[in-house]
Please model this.
Amino acid sequence: MLITLEGIDGSGKSTLYRGLEERLADINPLFTREPGSPYLGDAVRRAIAENSDPLAEAALFVADHAVHLATVVRPALEEGRVVISDRYSDSRFAYQQVSLAGHHPSPKSWLTAVHARWSIVPDITFLMLISPKTALERVGDRGEREHFEQEEFLEEVQKNYLDRMAENPSRFILVDAELPPETILDFVEKSIRERINRQ
Ligand code: TYD
Model:
């Protein structure tokens, strides 16, 4: 089973991820993330930091996904493990539709085509919903901002996430990311366990 955690920067995904690592230890899930695949992760980080070409950056995110899928996600799913990924393909549909606007005539069709027929669609996606202003206040405490971390940009990203959810309602579970972290963790843990028990 493939479970993904999505949401804008500062939505609390990483806190949720760490909490799930502790709470779900008994089912031994494989915890992983995008970007950050074995040999492309550094190139992606560099593309984000240099912010020079949105198409190159988007292509690197897709390449990172391919390596992630081939070397980490697919082998674990084939062993029957539960895989939990902090960010996955929906991040591309949410972020690159914004970053590619004006650089490609139809970012959405490019993203759809480039993932079609080889990428694995998650079974469940938790979408952390939060006001971009609040999210950026949280990010603000962590030092330097990446080029994605701007309020208007994140407003658009979150809209794309919500569109994506409207197009795939059975896969998405919405999480109110402004609730206390323990409440969020309780809810997500319970949802995952219920889903596993139903299998
Ligand atoms: P990361 O540093 O892992 O941020 P976070 O801790 O918020 O997950 O990710 C780097 C940035 O890359 C983040 O702002 C989201 C963005 N991103 C994309 O634009 N497209 C993608 O496909 C992925 C996976 C991430």
